[in-house]
Amino acid sequence: MPIILETKQITKRFGELAAVNNLSFDVNEKEIFGIAGPNGAGKTTLFNVISGIYSGSGEIDYFGERIDRLRPFQVCLKGIARTFQIPTVFSTLTVYDNIRIGAHFGNHSLNEKKIINDVLEFIGLTEKQHIEAKHLPLFDKKLTMLGAALATEPKLILLDEPIGGLSPKEINESVELFKRINNELGITIIVIEHLMKVLMAISQRMMIIHNGEKICIGSPEEVARDKQVIEVYLGAEYA
Ligand SMILES: Nc1ncnc2c1ncn2[C@@H]1O[C@H](COP(=O)(O)OP(=O)(O)O)[C@@H](O)[C@H]1O
Ligand SMILES: [Mg+2]
Q: Which of 87, 131, 187, 212 could form a disulfide with 42 if both were Cys (CB 3.0 to 4.6 A apart)?
């Protein structure tokens, strides 16, 4: 598969702190690429740099085109969508309208209704489409945020700890949904997750970061037996 995203020596500093430090990696089209690392490792900052919220140094190529100077809405229009660690929805709007905003951002005014209804069906919220987002339980809020991202019709989606706070049943449903997003919609996924069991089960390749730096990249098996990964992240009992 061709490379969809290529990052070259990305660095993002907050004062003295290099939250992301000289990070280079490639993501292949149609792959599920997992990212893990300790709290504060720089995972969310990396997503903020890719999605144009922060500008750092280094280069980011998307289908061979530089995107590292674009603003967030321009990154979105290129076909990169994201979700947030803390569910971020328009709380006074209905599920339908939240997803409509995604469709609108994706600039699909001609077939907006069809996209919204398809997305509602896909995430399983058709029945709840008229509920105001503030009345939804956590899982449905997360689905709504994901739905808004899907409605932009991305080629690449960035999921930041999407299963945090969910029950085991909801985690299973989420994993199935991510697989369908990947298989049925053909969308490339980069997913940050600290539940290693889940991440290893869905990722073709994974990257572990620590103090903003890449310490290992490879298949789940390769990552799980890497000495440095065990030392700084997994702990000896995992090995
Ligand atoms: N806007 C910010 N200003 C200052 N420091 C920040 C900011 N965002 C993140 N950081 C710091 O950068 C480091 C990486 O944070 P983050 O990317 O959120 O880590 P992770 O998502 O891996 O837990 C942390 O030390 C955090 O405190
Ligand atoms: Mg984070």
A: 212
